[in-house]
Amino acid sequence: MTVHRFRLPVCGVAALLGATVLTGCQSGGDDAATSAATPSAATSSTARAASPAAPAATTTAPAAATSASAAAPTPGTVVDGATFGRRIEQATRSAKTVRVSMPAPDDPSQSLDADMVFVSPTRTDLSMAFPVENPQDEGFELRMVDGSLYFSNPDPEIDAQWLSADEGTRNPFAQTLVGMMQESARVAPAGQSALYAKSRVTAVGPERVAGTQTTRYRVAVPMTVVLDGVEKSYRSTGGLDPELEKELPRLRQQAKGQTLTQDVWVDAQHRPVQAEVATPDLGGPKTEPMTITYSRWGKPVTVERPPADQTQSVDTAWGSEVPPWLE
């Protein structure tokens, strides 16, 4: 494989992890939703459509609000953001599994896909496949099982098929990636529900997406709330990048009165089918709207730790140094 494929986009990975486009680039929720995950001896996660539902979310929506048969609101109706978020959160936990896809950050013509298992309110496991540039390249995969990361070895000088990292790693690159992924797992999908509660949610109307009848909603998220989440997430996982630290005051000033727009298409069970996000111009490079798709809700998914005899820790492989091709 081409080694630069290992330049993992942390916020993009975290976005997929939460099955929502903002989770990981923001964080929120009450103390219960953001508490640390309980360590487990499990070596894999398996979920099937016929499995019992995952443990109840921290906040449970009223029965009337979570009914799959609830009538869609009239176009133009402003709906309660907290109820809207809770319905998506509960539907996500009930399904237990989903595949989430977004354009690859360095090649929008290709797709970055993640199969996820919502094991508990504080644990999300995943298997993520990264696209390759050339057919002859080997694929690249990242897995997370109970907060520990495993990824295909990109270094030909290391005799192992997989590298691993957990919260005790000393490697600075791995520390950032593990911290962001674990933070996202702790708040997803409850963190997105909390964000919707601070947003203006408006019904757009019925639309058919990928053969599924959906209702489209437009979510206006205050950019100040998004920036608060970005700062909190980074500070909780090792601190802000110096450049971002310097830019924050300017960004906060420009963000006043602006919103991030997220259009969400949900099915009759209130599960997202598609989301499109448009970020306002805060003086940086212009960004195009990003589309994320959700599929295979409730389909069987198994995420396993790689065999121990094929795995080497990042600390043993790289020590405290960051390989030059990652800098």
TrEMBL record:
For bias kind Low complexity, which ranges apply? Answer: 65-75
Signal peptide residues on this chain, from the entry's feature table: 1-23
| Top-level taxon of origin | Bacteria
Alphabetically sorted, this entry's keywords are: Signal
Q: Which residues cross the membrane?
A: none
Question: Where are the stretches annotated Disordered?
Answer: 65-113, 278-327
The entry's protein name is: Lipoprotein
**Organism this protein belongs to:** Barrientosiimonas humi
